[in-house]
Design a protein that fits this description.
6 helices, Arc Repressor Mutant, subunit A
Length: 184
């Protein structure tokens, strides 16, 4: 149904409360806004952007909607009322067979809600990742340490006093830039 052209409805506490209450009762914002008596989706989003009080009310309604979806998952999974259908076979024998279409539809409804919950509220409904830093035996990993030395110190570093880096031990810069064959 199309809406009349014109100015979008002005924000009123009563209308905002109705939008949030319907969301808290399980309707998505898109479903609420399809009602010709309700503001458009774009208008509600503008209200949330412009009005901090409504933004908080909307966030709380959204949280309640997510809780509603979480509860629906259990209800859908537990409802097996249409999982079986009766079929009449030859000679009037009636048997019950699984209704795979209904079972698959229920699975899709559950999986869709689970996916939405994991994306819209990942801290609460997302998969928990166990990030551990341990060796296979369970002991804590030790971070490797490295010692970097520069011959002659390096920029901003004191000279390296390691005797292993000195070629003959006579001076700090012995052998630096020369080979044993070069002499003056």
């Amino acid at each position: 149904m199309t809406r009349k052209a014109g100015r979008p409805p002005k924000f009123t506490e009563r209308l905002a409360k109705q939008v949030c209450q319907r969301m808290a009762d399980g309707e998505s914002l898109r479903q609420v806004c399809r009602d010709p008596k309700m503001p458009s989706l774009k208008t509600v989003m503008r209200w949330a952007a412009d009005n901090p009080t409504f933004r908080q009310q909307y966030a709380e309604a959204r949280e309640a909607l997510l809780e509603h979806w979480a509860e629906e998952i259990t209800e859908i999974a537990d409802d097996g009322s249409n999982d079986w259908i009766r079929r009449e076979k030859e000679a009037g024998v009636i048997t019950e067979v699984p209704d795979h279409e209904h079972i698959n539809r229920s699975r899709l409804r559950v999986d869709t809600r689970k996916w939405l919950l994991s994306k819209l509220a990942p801290r609460k409904y997302g998969d928990a990742l166990a990030l551990t830093h341990a060796n296979p035996d369970g002991s804590h990993l030790q971070a490797p340490t490295f010692a970097i030395t520069f011959p002659g110190g390096g920029p901003g570093l004191p000279p390296n006093d390691s005797s292993a880096d000195k070629s003959d031990g006579d001076s700090d810069d012995a052998g630096a830039g020369t080979t044993g064959a070069e002499t003056s």
